[in-house]
Amino acid sequence: MKKRRGRTGRKRRTKCLQSFMDGVNCSHKLEYIQLKKWLKDRGFEDSNLRPAEFLETGRGLMTTKAIQVRDLIISLPEKCLLTTSTVLSSCLGEYIMKWKPPVSPLIALCTFLIAEKYAGEESQWKPYLDVLPKTYTCPVCLEHDVVSLLPEPLRKKAQEQRTMVQELYMSSKAFFSSLQPLFAENTGTIFNYSALEWAWCTINTRTIYMKHSQRECFSLEPDVYALAPYLDLLNHSPNVQVKAAFNDQTRSYEIQTNSQCKKYEEVFICYGPHDNQRLLLEYGFIAMDNPHSCVYVSSDILLKYFPPLDKQRNAKLSILKDHDFLENLTFGWDGPSWRLLTALKLLSLAADEFTCWRRTLLGDVISAKNEQQTLTITAKICHYLIEETQHALLQISQLKRMKENLREHLALVEALRLEDLKILQKSAEVL
User: Where is the SET domain (predicted)?
Assistant: First the structure.
């Protein structure tokens, strides 16, 4: 006789369906079982969060019970955190203490990650290292062809980021060589550029802010990093608010939420009110429909639309520079920013209006003609950026067909550019 599916059967099926719709539970995977056991040995108890794969965000954490406002999402004991104290108490400690000039806290952490990854099975941190990404999508890891398709202000920052990591590597080579007694293999092969790039990205994308007291064995750069296993699986959403800090009473890093979350949904935290260019630069991803997103206008574009023969042009530029009005000029979801309009108003002042420049910076209306010219130029800049974005999108789709190996990275730049296009089209409507 066929057994009828009772209420529990129906419930179970709905539950499975629900969890599949929201995210696929991954806590049965070996690497997560080992990570949870390792954390438990270090005093971490957690019953509500599960590693899962989500359609929109990839890997993240889902909750097995509804979360209310002011609930503690996670509390990670100090023993689970990877900080410069961890590094100093390892075999690297004595080498760091005697090295002159002192290394930065950042290089100490990078060195530790590379050494532990090289140690493989022997590493005490293996369960954590096993769940870290093998590769990253920060601009420093992107091919030149992909970087060249980023919006101009971000492209510049991406190149600066790459130069900075390269310089970090070059300036640390002598220190890496000093660690030779610890390794059978040549340190040059272990601590190569790609190993440092991976370690730098791991720290840059995953550390939580935690202030440590200044130590003499480190350079004067602030020691504010802590890697937080399991907690770093939480993804970012611009639409949630959290309180996150180290609790001196419980000696744990704690995150408390100001948002609700339904059972089996992904739990999000907020890395800060960052626009998509900042998210891509620092973390290697973008957030769709990000309310903080904007399109930056570089000073070169600003000047494209002004008569080069304007006798006061240099004086105007000098005023804008002195009052910090040549940076952070943007178009947002609600149109051109006040800063952009103010910079353009000042550049649009007629010769007989130039003495009113202070009033312009305060937001006063100088004349109807000045207001009209400002709006006309703003609209021209907006349309120029729309065309430039559409051209970049066309190049991206062509490159995606030609270079299969760059598809993932190109898709990321494409998503950023599509979001930019939406913002610019909205701004064009407003204008």
Answer: 47-272
DSSP state of 207: P
Which pairing describes strands 252-257 and 225-226: parallel, antiparallel, or unpaired? Answer: unpaired
> Can you name the residues that pair with 77 across neighbouring β-strands?
252
Residue type, 281: L
Residue 70 CA to residue 407 CA, distance in Å, equals: 41
Regarding whether 205 and 107 lie in a shared domain, the answer is yes
> Quick check: is 320 in a domain?
yes
Model pLDDT for residues 2-33, shown as the tens digit of each residue = 334 444 444 444 444 444 456 899 889 999 99
Instruction: Give yes or no: residues 90 and 216 share one domain.
Output: yes
Determine the Cα angle at 327 with ends 322 and 328, to 5°: 140
Residue range 36-61, pLDDT digits in tens: 999 999 999 877 899 999 988 889 99
Cα–Cα distance for residue pair 171/156, rounded to 1 Å: 22
| Structural domains counted in the chain | 2
Alpha-carbon distance of 343 to 353, in angstroms, equals 15
For residue 353, the one-letter residue type is E
Write out the residue range of the structural domain in which residue 330 sits.
295-430
379 in the same domain as 302 = yes
d(CA 25, CA 49): 10
219, 301: one domain: no
The model's pTM: 0.88
CA-CA distance, 163 to 21, in Å (whole number)?
A: 43
Q: Of 155, 414, 420, which is closest to residue 294 (Cα–Cα)?
A: 420
Task: Tell me the sheet residues that pair with 62.
Answer: 50, 266
- For position 110, which CATH number holds? 3.90.1410.10
C-alpha distances out from residue 205 to 234, 235, 328, 377, Å: 12, 11, 23, 38
d(CA 94, CA 99): 9
Burial 375-384 (b: 16+ CB within 10 A, else e): bebbeebbee
Place of tokens 């907006």: 382
